[in-house]
Structures are given as C-alpha cells and as structure tokens.
Design brief:
5 strands; Rossmann fold; single chain; Zinc Finger, Delta Prime, domain 3; binds zinc ion; five-stranded parallel β-sheet; 51% helix; alpha/beta
C-alpha cells in the first residue's frame, strides 16, 4: 500500500530534529494511527522503502504516538484527515520520554547482530512476548532490516506473526518485499514509504542543519531520496571532501608521476572511502560531459566556474573512457581484485598521462 504523502506544520511539537524528516510520511503515519485508534490496525506491519527513507524512525514514531499519554483522540468529524498534527506524540510525557531515550520496557528493537538476525534473537523475543506488556498501552516490536533474518529465524517468527500476543504490534522494516520470505510478507500489512523528493531534503538540510542553498541542493541530489544519507553527508563534511578531491583532480595534470602514484595509493587504502571518491569522480566527469550540451543540468552546480574552465580540456570520448575506468575500479572493489593497480591506472589517465 502506498499512501499519498505531503507535509504538515508540526512546529508546535517538541521532538528531536531527526523526527522532522518524518513530516514527509505524515499521511502514512496518520493513517496508521487512525487505524490504531479505531482498533483496526494489523498486528503485523511491514515497512519497506529505500535505505535511509525513515522506516525505523517511522516505526519508532508510531510506537510513540500510539502510547503517548497526551495523545489527542480524534473524533468522527476529523475522519477527513485535515488535522494530521493531532496524531503527533507530545514528546514530553513519561511514555514519549522513555521511547525517545530507548528505555521503554515494551518497545523492543531487534536488528542484525553481525550480518544476520539469528534464531536466538527471535527465541528470546518469543520468550519476552509470552509475558504481558509491563506498562505500555500497546507493546511494539520493531524488527529492523528484517531482510537480514536467516531462514531459521524467519520461520521461528512466523508463528508470532500469525498469532501475536494481545496489545502487541510487530513492525518489520526491509528494503523491498522480494527480500523476505513470502510466508512472512503474507502475514503482514505492507506499507511502502516513498523516496523523499530532493526539494524536501534540501529544505530540511537548510532548516535543520544550516546548510547553504548550494550545499543543500547538491547533498539532496546525491542522497537519492534518503534523508539519513543526506544528513550523514552533511554532518561528515562530504562537501569539503568533494571540494578537496576535485581540486586534486584539477591539479593532477601538473603533478609528477610519483605524486600521482602516491595519491592513487592513498585512495586505494580504504575501500569504503574509495567507493565514495569514485562516485565523486564519476559525477565530476559526468558534469564535464553534460556541460558541453546542457550547462544547466550539471550536478555540481556550485562548481560551475571550475567546470567551465575544465570541460574543454578533454573530449567527450576521453571522458567516457574515464567513466569506464571508474567502473573497472568499482568491479575490482566488489571482486576483491587488485584495487591499487586499477586506481593507479585511473589516476594516470585522469592526469592525461
Ligand atoms: Zn507523549
């Protein structure tokens, strides 16, 4: 199920700023809260959507609003859904406080330990669920990244999904339905959280993270619909790193072979960081190619002056062959091949050697 989403003004509510990103999903959350209040909410929910779209945060929010001691209960006249904000939790009552501090005994979070959710975790959950909730109006179990459940754990969970204990809602989050056992999917009500549009992410970065308009625009484009990725990039100074790397690339033609090799070696040392650098390079090359034909379509719009200076120094064919070389390095990373050698070749070619 996909529910049309749009924003609402929630400025009257005091929650940590990360929750502001949920404004985009407020229709979905209001729908679920309304169902909860009416007693028709399914006891097993499955939230799917891109990584970083807010699945886990939405699950936490639902657990909070359904247990908020100050929740205003809508009357029938509000069925039209005009006043979504009446479904938002207060963020200050005892229940909200405990959930925000992750200390509520009835809000249980299960996530992969190592690379998997293992059967022992599900067994221990089943044991906890055999007891009544301690204090919550409704207990919530959030199983994050449920696609990382091994089949044994998945099968153990089936029975609970089929007959959940009283006053208990289980929320699974996953990238997509096809990543889960069909037997699990069929027992859940499926809610798909849509990717968050660039303009929403850009505005969020400007308002909540003091990003400049240029910075917000670029990070929003690079985040591919994921608000947490955008925030991560902002708080980890992605833009500074990109500026530094692009400056290095621009200067590469003037560098000695020794310098280029040392630069390549530094890049190849950390595969995770290299993946990020390659993506920065790929967009840069793409912009150099695109600028010739459609200067208003470049991604690094804040670097337009540099792009204007650089784009004619190589022809499109050379630039495209560099993009191919980037793919070669990416494949080496994935296959655990000789990353250093292919990074050296890439950097030498980038330098026009
Ligand atoms: Zn509250």
């Amino acid at each position: 199920m996909t529910i049309r989403t749009e924003e609402a003004d929630l400025s009257a509510f005091t929650l940590p700023s990360e929750f502001d990103s949920l404004k985009y999903h407020i229709k979905t959350l209001s729908y679920l809260t309304r169902a909860f209040t009416a007693g028709t909410l399914s006891h097993a929910l499955l939230f799917t959507g891109l990584q970083g779209v807010g699945k886990q945060l939405a699950a936490q929010m639902l657990s909070m609003v359904c247990n908020c001691l100050e929740r205003s209960v809508p009357d029938d006249s509000e069925q039209s859904g005009d006043d979504e904000s009446s479904f938002w939790p207060c963020g200050q009552c005892r229940s909200c406080h405990k959930i925000l501090n992750k200390s509520h005994p009835d809000i249980l979070l299960i996530r992969p330990t190592g690379s998997l959710i293992k059967i022992d975790q599900v067994r221990s959950l089943i044991q906890k669920l055999s007891l009544k909730p301690y204090e919550a109006e409704n207990r919530f179990v959030i199983i994050a990244d449920a696609d990382f459940m091994n089949p044994e754990a998945g099968n153990a969970l089936l029975k609970v999904l089929e007959e959940p204990p009283d006053r208990t809602t289980i929320i699974l989050t996953a990238g997509q339905v096809s990543d889960l056992l069909p037997t699990i999917v069929s027992r859940c009500m499926h809610i798909r959280l849509s990717p968050i549009p660039e303009d929403f992410i850009a505005r969020f970065l400007k308002e909540d993270y003091e990003a400049t308009p240029d910075e917000a625009g670029i990070l929003a484009r690079m985040a591919s619909g994921s608000i947490s990725r955008a925030v991560f990039m902002k708080t980890n100074h992605w833009l500074d790193r990109r500026n530094h790397l692009i400056q290095e690339l621009v200067n590469l033609r003037e560098r000695s072979v020794g310098f280029i090799m040392a630069f390549a070696e530094r890049l190849a040392q950390d595969k995770e960081r290299l993946t990020e650098c390659l993506e920065i390079f790929r967009i840069w090359l793409r912009d150099l190619i695109v600028y010739r034909y459609a200067p208003d379509r470049i991604v690094y719009a804040d670097l337009e002056d540099t792009i204007r200076n650089e784009y004619q120094k190589s022809d499109s064919e050379t630039l495209l062959s560099l993009v191919d070389l980037i793919h070669t390095v990416q494949k080496k990373i994935e296959s655990n091949g000789n990353v250093r050698l292919s990074t050296e070749i890439l950097m030498m070619k980038m330098a026009g050697q």
